[in-house]
Amino acid sequence: MSTPWDDLDDRSRQAVDASVETFARIRPALDAVRQDAEARLRDAFAGSDLVPLFFSSRTKSVESFRAKASRTEPGQSGDGPPTLVFPKPLAQIADLVGVRVITTLPEENSSAANLIKRQRSQFDCRSDREKDIGSIESGTYGYSSRHLILRTIHNDVVREFQRQLEPDAKPTGNYAFEVQIRTIFAHAWSEIEHDIRFKADDPRAWSPHFDRQFTATAAMLESVEHAFSDLNENYNRVRSYWDPDGEGAAPLTAERIREVWQTLLPHVDRKSRDDWAWAIELLDAHGIDTTLGLVELLQADAISDVRKALEHRYSPGPDRLLDDLLLWRFGTDHIDATAEPAGADSTPRRDSLQRRLAQMRRYRDQQPE
To answer: Where exactly are the transmembrane stretches of this chain (predicted)?
Structure first.
């Protein structure tokens, strides 16, 4: 099984061998650069609201360096011998040192990248690429990651590495390395895909079906990521409703009631009419005029109890369910506040509420203490 190095001509092979020998000699010093880069990136996130799941880093192995340094491209004349893609691999290969920042949700990738790029006293960002843009624009699925090329600035650990690399040159402390930012799902996919596609012991062990499976799993993972992002967004919205000094203090309008209802109870939405002014009247009758007051009323356990107590033949809409929840909490006060006067000639609403309240009381009496 041949490798790119095996296919080199004698002149290119000698150049690559010399670079590999130098890389093997200075790799321990380069590994110190790797450790320092990861530590500085960890420190950049300390105290931040964004907390990555984990960090990892690696210094390219000698074998991997040889393979990348051996890459060739057609000669400029078109009919000449192939030329090395990296004639000066120690200076031209930007991922000899790589750091990974693994996040939970896709939207955190952008925040992480921006936070890193703000560390201008330590790093200069030389490149910033979304590696999934091509897949999105082509309508396909695949690898997804944010790649930054950072350059250290007057770094003493880098200076020591540079002294070992070129003893006669003045060390600058500037060195480029790669940072990959991706979600835990994209990380798992890329690790498995890389092991099978690029690190297989026998490259003949391949089938086009593997490509289909990788594409399918990438699509599924993207759907999972979007679902978790939606879940996290909804959770943060609901959590904000419980803040008495923030969103919880927001006054109830028809639009606000609809928003809260559709967030908490999307499965109990209106089938017709989109006017929620009726809800304001019901809630005002009990002095519920803030978002916090509404979410306190729309609790899942209360809704379950109401459903069990009334044994609805049909799933109630928002108007009936809100009415029942207020009746569950306030009892006869709700009847007196929202129904016809007791002595009126016709009292259909009062009669209906009293029947439902009696059912609720029987249900409560049957529950264990």
So the answer is: none
Q: Is the dihedral of CA 336, 338, 344, 345 positive or negative?
A: negative
Q: Helix (H, G, I), strand (E, B), or coil: what is residue 183?
A: strand
The pair of structure tokens assigned to 233 is 């967004």
Tokens 């999972």 -> residue = 224
Give the other-Cβ count within 10 Å of 142's Cβ.
Answer: 19
**CA–CA distances in Å: residue 117 to residues 114, 123, 131, 306:** 5, 7, 18, 54
Q: Is 341 helix (H, G, I), strand (E, B) or coil?
A: coil
Instruction: Tell me the C-alpha distance between 201 and 363, whole Å.
Output: 68
Q: What is the pTM of this model?
A: 0.80
Helical axes 106-117 vs 10-45, angle rounded to 10°: 90
Question: CA angle, 227 as apex, 299 and 224 as ends, to 5°?
Answer: 140
Q: What are phi and psi of 290, to 5 degrees?
A: -125, 160
The C-alpha atoms of residue 323 and residue 364 are separated, in whole angstroms, by 18
What is the Cα 317 distance to its own chain's centre? Answer: 34
Place of tokens 């650990």: 157
Alpha-carbon distances, residue 174 vs 87, 91, 96, 97, 261 (angstroms): 21, 12, 14, 13, 56
Q: Give me the tens of pLDDT residue by residue for the chain, a chain 369 residues long.
A: 567 777 888 888 999 999 999 999 999 999 999 999 999 999 999 989 999 999 999 999 999 999 999 998 887 666 677 889 999 999 999 999 999 999 999 999 999 999 999 999 999 999 999 877 656 666 777 778 899 999 999 999 999 999 999 999 999 999 999 999 999 999 998 888 878 876 666 667 778 888 889 889 988 998 999 999 999 999 999 999 999 999 999 999 999 999 999 999 988 876 556 788 999 999 999 999 999 999 999 999 999 999 999 997 778 889 999 999 999 999 999 999 999 998 899 999 999 999 999 999 999 999 887
